[in-house]
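Summary for the steering committee. The consortium agreed at its last meeting that each partner would contribute one worked example illustrating the joint modelling workflow. Our contribution is presented below. We chose a case with several input lines so that the handling of multiple components could be demonstrated. No manual editing was applied between input and output; the record is shown as generated.
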Amino acid sequence: MVDTARTENTVTIRPPSGWEWIDFKELFAYRDLFYFLVWRDIKILYAQTIMGFSWAIFNPLIQIVIFSIVFGRVAKLDTGGIPYVLFSTVAIIPWTYMSESMRASSQSLVQGQAVLGKIYFPRVLYPITPILAKLVDFGISLVLLLLIMVWYRVMPTWNVLLLPVLIVMMMAVPAGMGLWLSALAIRFRDVKFAMPFVIRMLIYSAPVLYSATSISPEYRILYALNPIVGVIEGFRSALLGTPIMWDSLLVGVIMSGLLLFSGMLYFKKMERVFVDVI
Amino acid sequence: MSSKGPVIRVDNVSKIYRVGVQDSASENMVGAFLDFIRSPLKNYRKYRSLYDFSDVLDDGSGGEDSNVLWALRDVSFEVEQGDVVGVIGMNGAGKSTLLKLLSRITPPTRGEIQIRGRVGSLLEVGTGFHPELTGRENIYLNGTILGMRKKEVDRKFDEIIDFAAVDKFLDTPVKRYSSGMRVRLAFAVAAHLEPEILIVDEVLAVGDYEFQRKCINKMQDVSGEGRTVLFVSHNMPSVARLCDRGILLNKGQVVQDGKVEEIISAYLSSGSGVTSERTWDEAEAPGGNIARLRAVRVLDKDGTLAEAVEITDPVTVEMEYELLESGHEVVPNVHFHNEQGINVFMTVDNDKEWSGRPRPAGYYKSTITIPGNLLSEGMLYVTPSLIGLQEKRGEFLVRQAIAFQVVDHMLEGSARAGYTLQFHGVMRPLVPWRTVKYENEHRSQAG
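What follows is the complete predicted structure of the assembly.
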């Protein structure tokens, strides 16, 4: 825990005090638990369903179809010449991952509270687990996206090299948010009620359905303070070859780093009192 | 692990909980409206007060605040390697809180705890089981939650399923398990954790008798290997048998710390266990039109009220009752149940003076004396009853009205005769044995 000094085998348990940093050594010692928690999340998600993992394809597929019809055909938004299906799919996939893992992460502690009161393990494993588990769905959707790209005969450019950085960023944002929100949710159940609203706000503020180029340049840095912007425009650049907006991306990297860092700090501070305020 | 100093050192540890944070309600509408506006801030302060006790600790009142509960107060003790310590106390004495602090579930409010070695806690087995996962998968998940590495689980896997006896259902989701199977599996995983320090809280309250015995044996194995065990239980016979040292807690403080026999006696005689006497006045006396129960009590061999009696000593049960009408033939009787709910035996009034003939109205006292070396150790619950023979119905029957503990300090002259391992059976009569040695095998056939 926060206030646990681990020297070899000796553990000192003290009252909580001040800010502390995550004990990565201890986390490493629990790596097998982490593995099984992730694996459990993946396995039970589609347990007792007839379609199993096909849901992972079905869900984004339906969303893509709806968005394409509503925004591509009816609203006729400017996509810079890219077929709207591709334009929106490339954004919906990372966006779905981020919102889903953020939602699961923020509720992870409240849902696991029965275990929290009975046994000790590094609490931080709980909000981090969905960040990895949801990557499975993300991977499946990514294959779907590649198929659409092949259909439209879109060749990736060198921009695709940016993809690993973007994926890390895409994981850091919900991880940071999840650390903050899960720690808050255990004390304030308001978080649960605020989540759908927050997610809806994020989807419309992020350039999922429209292009970030439609924001006038003087506000773009301000706009990029939402790190989701950098991730989604980045995915478009990496996979569809639209010009990379370096300034937005840089702001996004800094913001997601800050989010993750502050989330860890806050989570660590609150971790020890979780059990007493459930 | 070397034996340098204690493996557990608890140093002036206190734990405070906030209870009953009062909301003050406004009396007028404007006030109520303002309260409503202010409530987010107020709620924030309220939640903060749940874990921030600086106000209580710093105001100089010594923490005497009606809103706080000292679950533990300045508790200090040390445990050496290999000690098997029983933590005893009434409900609310702070036992569970102490174990929660030791297993790092919640932090102390004040003080410091040092622990050397891996701690395995069985505070409630089976936490972290997921109903959708199979038995096999849950073994791995639960094992790693308890702090094992995957390799360790691999290595002990066969032992675990053997212990739990669920090998046929390994690939069945746990949601289809019976509750007994689930508990067995959970304990099996926990029991194979091989911690240096094992913390056990009332695990033995679950499972059938057979399984409880297995658990006790497993714990004995653990402590036999020089590991340290902290055991919290209300089951005095298991505490007495397993532990060599006891810590008695009361209202969050250590009352006594010493040899387990002394601690158990102190606990039982403090009246915090069960009552060994109950009396009823006329208005509330249980019974029908014919008879009313007025008192029932347990006495030791000296005739004093006793919560605990030595297994080698006789024990007396007295029952006082009133007959309201003359001319009824009645049979007073007493049932004795053990902790497993088994009716150990029943006995009826066989006093020659009254058997088979109607009694006049009035007050009666029946006395039963159970000889020593007959009952088994453990709690015995006494159910006094009275039956009207002509009416063929019970006049009164007060289930488990009182109880007493039969304790076995392994004294001379008990049925143990020096045998110190687990002693089975609901009764433990001292039965005469005669064993002779023959010079050759033919004699035994001839005899």
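Residues 22-277 of chain A form one domain. The CA atoms of residues 156 and 239 of chain A lie 5 Å apart.
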